[in-house]
Amino acid sequence: MQFEYTRRRSVRSPVTDAPTFRVARLAAAGQRDRDMSDLIDRSYNYHSARELHWHLADRLGVAPGAVSVTESALA
Predict the structure, then answer these.
(1) 12-21 confidence digits (pLDDT tens)
(2) Domain count of the chain?
(3) What is the pLDDT of residue 52?
(4) What b/e sequence results for 24-41 when a residue is b if at least 16 CB atoms lie within 10 Å of its CB, and e otherwise?
(5) 3-state DSSP call for residue 11?
(6) Dihedral sign of CA atoms 57, 60, 74, 20 in order
(7) Is residue 10 scored above 70 in pLDDT?
(8) For residue 23, with 0-12 CB atoms within 10 Å meaning exposed, 13-18 middle and 19 or more buried, which class applies?
(9) For residues 39 and 31, what is the distance between their CA atoms, to the nearest angstrom?
(10) 3-state secondary structure of 30
(11) Which of the four pLDDT bands, split at 50, 70 and 90, describes residue 55?
(12) In a 3-state reduction of DSSP, which class is residue 34?
């Protein structure tokens, strides 16, 4: 399963002082018109695309290797 996401905004974590981001939109790769953002908590501040990847695999109940997540080049 391949997904593309668009960042909504970046903030710094008050705990780790590392940059974070929220997901504005999540879609199946190649299907930008099909919003799948309801699969995740869009209010969560992710620290990395890897964290989003693991979160999405957990939500879908599949092994992390079955999911691919990339940032959309288009906002």
Answers:
(1) 888 888 889 9
(2) 1
(3) 94
(4) ebbbeeeeeeeeeeeebe
(5) strand
(6) negative
(7) yes
(8) buried
(9) 15
(10) coil
(11) very high
(12) coil
CA distance linking residue 63 with residue 75, whole number of Å:
28
Total-model pTM: 0.83
Dist CA 46 CA 42 (whole Å):
9
Single-letter residue type at 62: V
Q: Which two tokens stand for residue 59?
A: 């939500």
Q: Find the domain containing 61 and state its range.
A: 2-71
What is the token pair recorded at 62? Answer: 């599949």
Across 53-66, average pLDDT: 94
Place of tokens 């970046």: 10
Q: How far apart are CA 26 and CA 3, in angstroms?
A: 7
Question: What's the rounded Cα separation, in Å, for the pair 43 and 9?
Answer: 11
Q: Going along 1-75, which residue ranges are E strands?
A: 2-12, 19-28, 68-71
Q: How far apart are CA 65 and CA 75, in angstroms?
A: 26
